[in-house]
Amino acid sequence: MAPRTFWKGYLKLSLVTCPVTMMPALTDQEKVRFHTLNAQTGNRVVSRYVDSETGKAVKEEDEARAWQRGEDDFVVLEDEEIDAVGLESTRTIDIERFVKRDTVGWVWFDRPHYVMPSDPVGEEAFVVIREAMAATGTAGLSRVVMYRRERPVLLEPRDKGIVLWTLRYGDEVREEKDYFTGIGKPKADAALSRMMLKLVDARMTNWDPAMVEDPVQDKLIDLIETRRKKRKSRTTGRKQKASPAPEAAGNVISIMDALRKSLDDKGKKK
């Protein structure tokens, strides 16, 4: 079954516009999901908002969004007021400017999405925008309402399509210099550097998505299947035995010895 369209609208660059669709590049549909049950009755547990003072449930129409100004002091905002400060159009990706793709650090990237033309008539305009970015090594910057919030986004060409990344906000990213400036600058020993390069080369391989598979998912599926066959309504998972922590390397073992052993072990495995 084809996935349902996640987002549909227009990609716009100056006077060039084309209809597009967008789909998340990531999925968690294959992940095992659990529900919370009442262990006594086997019924599902539901969550709801309750008044912190009265303990009574709050009706959905009575729920309001507020910003806390002080202790027990809130500024309540209406939904219409919040929506009014957003984008005028939630269905147009208007590329406002371009930046060199390699100048945007990885830490700014949040979620990737695939963008493709939704109408054959608009394919030419889509291709022109995509190829212009590819030829200049640039990425487009825009803003769009996604996940119920206005977000900065970056668009980059990828194969026949375009990848749109939602970006992190400026106040979410911490400066790396605040953490790395205290690291010293010892000069690496030439012999150690050569051995380290040999170790890296010995472990070099081609990328394969299988390298990042989640083994826990397979174990959970096996566990669920076992419980299903036994017709038990309540699952009782066992805690995995923790892997023994590697012994701390003392000062007696030098970096050179450790590298030699690593290279020897690699050679034996071959």
Describe this structure in words.
Helix 4 (190-202) runs parallel beside helix 6 (255-269). It contains six helices and ten strands, in the order ββββαβββαβββαααα. It has helices at residues 79-84, 123-136, 177-180, 190-202, 215-229, 255-269, and strands at residues 7-13, 16-24, 65-70, 73-77, 92-94, 97-100, 109-117, 138-146, 149-158, 161-167. With 270 residues, the chain is α+β, with helices and mostly antiparallel strands. The chain has an eight-stranded mixed sheet.
Reading the helices and strands in chain order gives EEEEHEEEHEEEHHHH
Q: Give the low-pLDDT segments.
A: 233-237, 248-252
Structure annotation, total helices: 6
Radius of gyration equals 27 Å
User: Structural class of the secondary elements?
Assistant: alpha+beta
Assess the beta-strand content as a share of residues.
25-35%
Strand order within the widest beta sheet: 5-1-2-7-10-9-8-6
Question: How would you briefly describe this protein structure?
Answer:
This protein is α+β, with helices and mostly antiparallel strands. It has 6 helices and 10 strands. 25% of the residues lie in helices and 26% in strands.
Helices and strands in order, then pairings?
Elements: E1 7-13, E2 16-24, E3 65-70, E4 73-77, H1 79-84, E5 92-94, E6 97-100, E7 109-117, H2 123-136, E8 138-146, E9 149-158, E10 161-167, H3 177-180, H4 190-202, H5 215-229, H6 255-269
Parallel strand pairs: 1-5
Antiparallel strand pairs: 1-2, 2-7, 3-4, 6-8, 7-10, 8-9, 9-10
Helix pairs in contact: 4-6
